[in-house]
TrEMBL record:
Residues 237-444 form the Cation-transporting P-type ATPase C-terminal domain. Its main location: membrane. The keyword Nucleotide-binding applies. It is found in: Cell membrane. It comes from Panagrolaimus davidi. It comes from the Eukaryota. Gene3D superfamilies: Calcium-transporting ATPase, cytoplasmic domain N, Calcium-transporting ATPase, transmembrane domain, HAD superfamily/HAD-like. The chain crosses the membrane at residues 384-407, 419-437. GO terms for cellular component: plasma membrane. This is Cation-transporting P-type ATPase C-terminal domain-containing protein. Keywords: ATP-binding, Cell membrane, Membrane, Nucleotide-binding, Translocase, Transmembrane, Transmembrane helix.
Amino acid sequence: MYEKFGQDGRRVIGFAYKTFNASPETEFNADEENFPHEDLIFSGMCAIMDPPKEETAEALKLCKTAGIKVFMVTGDHDLTAAAIAKQIGLIDEGNDKGDDWEVIKGEDINDLSEKDWDRLIAKRALVFARTTPEQKLLIVEECQKRKQIIAMTGDGVNDAPALKRADIGIAMGSGSSVAKEASDIILMNDNFASIVDGIREGRMMFDNIKKLLGYTQIHSFPEIWPIIINFCFGFPVGITPLQILAIDLGTEIWPGMAMCKEPMEGGVMEREPRTRKKVLVSNTLLGYSYTYAGQIQSLGCFLSYCCIFWYHGINITDLWMSALESWQEGGKDFSSNGRTFSVEEQLYINRQACSAWQVGIVFGQFWHIYGVRTRRQSIFSHGVFRNMYSNFALIAELGMLIAMVYIPGLNTFLGGAPIPLQCWAVVAGFGIFLIVLNELRKYFCRKYPRNKIVRLFKW
């Protein structure tokens, strides 16, 4: 009968009694155990059914697809533990042992060798039954020895050592104060599904921060290149300090904030868990921002800058080292293609060129955000206009840029001047090219996720 109750997932409490002599003043104490334990007379048993929450089975399915291993560690009988594990889908029905799961009794844990632990921890799911507090701690330590990142749940005083030792200790809201103090997180609703929800939210937050870094870091090189070409090649100044401040503290703020509100993209809970080596600012992310994507945007800025000089009939080759004597207050006249430009004309053209470079950065970022709002999923299946915060932020960014370029007084204050539409068209072309490049990168990341070359571009 006991085994039948256990196989049904019921916890069983037995009742027994014994008649013995004791003075009326005796106070029995379970801690001191001042009563006999032998020769008790069995009087019956009580089977308790504590069904798992409905959300648990679905949460375990998500864990499986997300590559998260779930080990059940309980003080219950192995039959009861196995039955509950089958009810929630942790282990398979009708088997005592599977290829990717196993039930281990507490009495066998201390006899496990290192090879046994290696074999067990490699499995998808384990059920440890009749475990002691010391064994719970041992299980956590053995997992950590094998480079596993452990989240441990518990509610009792006996769980405190294991909760403290785990990478993430999660105490139940209804648990003891000792367990809560030893843990990192308190689960107020005592629901395992909430842990999975937290993992989902955590992955989304990690993704959004990474996207934000990919978005903001890319414009660093376009802000440096004007200084390089001015200092090394003597070209006229490409951007002013006030324009850089207007970009970093003005136009870029709104899209960056909107990126934090980006909805979760598909497939986030189908990725493998990150290892400790996978940091937020990875080499591949830096490579994306500072090599190919950053340089593509820099090239767009440079061509937009060049468009101003072409628009005025100036050869780019004639700009070589021209900033040493021209393009400044009190400088010399500048000649190109048989035409001579006065100092006033040079300064106005230079201000236009600075605005063209500013448009190259800001309008380039206007397009670039559509390429980095997802890391794996196509932006078109994710939803181009799905993030309303991003939509309003881009409108604000574009409005601010137009004001900085075309409103008299404001553009002069920033060191710019109105520019022709050709500059905008050049930047738009490079922006669309960067979106296409990102879509191809994400396609190959989805199609060939383990390819060594593809992984160089996966951030």
